[in-house]
Fold this protein.
Amino acid sequence: MILLEINNRIIEEALTLKFNNAAAGNKPEALDITIADFDGVLYHISNPGGDKTKVQVSISLKFYKDLQEHGADQLIKREYGSFLTTPESGYNVSIVFDLEHLPANRDEVVKKAGLLKRNCFASVFEKYFEFQQREENSQKRAVIHYRDDETMYVEAKKDRVTVIFSTVFKDDDDIVIGKVFMQEFKEGRRQYQQAPQVLFSHKEPPMELQNTNAKVGDNIGYITFVLFPRHTSPAARDNTINLIHTLRDYLHYHIKCSKAYIHSRMRAKTTDFLKVLNRARPEPKNVEKKTFSGKTFKMN
């Protein structure tokens, strides 16, 4: 299966081009790019105040207020430091780069800019991983409304961190294919004992969310990941965050790819059946045929 990229390649390519042109002494050009990403996220790459010698990258997340409750502002300040600036109107976080004073570690800066969404998401996971690391129970469950009708829940216990995603399946087919994918996760744990435990519940929320306002319905699914200390340790947590924050998009992406593949195979099979039918078409009973000398006769 394909793992979705956690970085935004358009941001990285745009900044790399601008940095390389500035390093080569080329005249700076105007820049204005708006990018849509998963989960309703928007990016804007522009020249603040029309100053072509500066490049600003801004991000808008509908659920940023939820993340702020769990230290998003502090994590963003830690990661981007002096590049942070006053957020652009309509956006939550903005970072700016001066093309006249390029950073020494350009590649690292470009890569970190491409991880802006990931780093915003990371705050809630780091907070609850720290609870588990100190063997403390979290006093309050984190609730992140990362999409209009979908929510992520994070809770820490002394020996584990539980992450639950609620998701909406728009088609009945999606539910069937989604269950197949979840079963593959379960089968994978039998083969790889170090993998986290994965649970899937349909229509009803899992036990952890009983007596809450968690949604119920025929098209609602809940995916539960149980992360153990080996997944939340300082050495492993970055990789865990990279993988788990894109889980919902990963699942629905592969559901759509599976449906597209099934449809393509159905169309190919239909074409084969039509060829067979065309070859099996009977000839007309009364057919005029000619002999070698040119005479005609009818076959009854």
